[in-house]
Design goal:
Number of domains: 2
Number of helices: 4
Largest sheet: 2 strands, antiparallel
Radius of gyration: 20 Å
Order of helices and strands: EEHHHH
Strand order of the largest sheet: 1-2
Distance between the termini: 32 Å
Helix content: 55-70%
Number of strands: 2
Structural class: mainly alpha
Length: 85
C-alpha cells in the first residue's frame, strides 16, 4: 500500500517510519530530492497562483468572520454539557 506525502508516493511502511521520527539514514534527503524533482516538472501551480489563493482565502475568512463566529457559537450551544465535541 502506498500513501501520498506531498506529491510523492511513499510505501506506507516507509511513510510510517518518516512520520514517527524514525526515518532511516537518508530517507528525508531522498524525499526532499523527489519533491524537488516533481516541482521541477512544472506540474505544480506557480508561486504567484498560490499567493493569490492564500490572499483570497484570507479575504474570505476576514469578510465572513462574524458568520463563522455565529455558526460556531450556535454549534457549541447545541452540545449538551459534558458531551464530546
Amino acid at each position: 500500500m502506498k500513501s501520498t506525502y506531498g506529491a510523492v508516493e511513499i510505501p506506507a511502511p516507509d511513510l510510517a517510519k518518516f512520520t514517527q521520527g524514525r526515518a532511516g539514514e537518508g530517507f528525508a534527503q531522498d524525499l526532499l530530492d523527489k519533491q524537488k524533482a516533481y516541482f521541477a516538472t512544472d506540474v505544480t501551480k506557480t508561486y504567484d497562483w498560490r499567493i493569490d489563493q492564500l490572499n483570497r482565502l484570507s479575504r474570505m475568512l476576514t469578510e465572513n468572520s462574524e458568520r463563522f463566529s455565529e455558526v460556531l457559537r450556535r454549534d457549541l450551544q447545541d452540545c449538551a454539557p459534558g458531551e464530546n465535541l
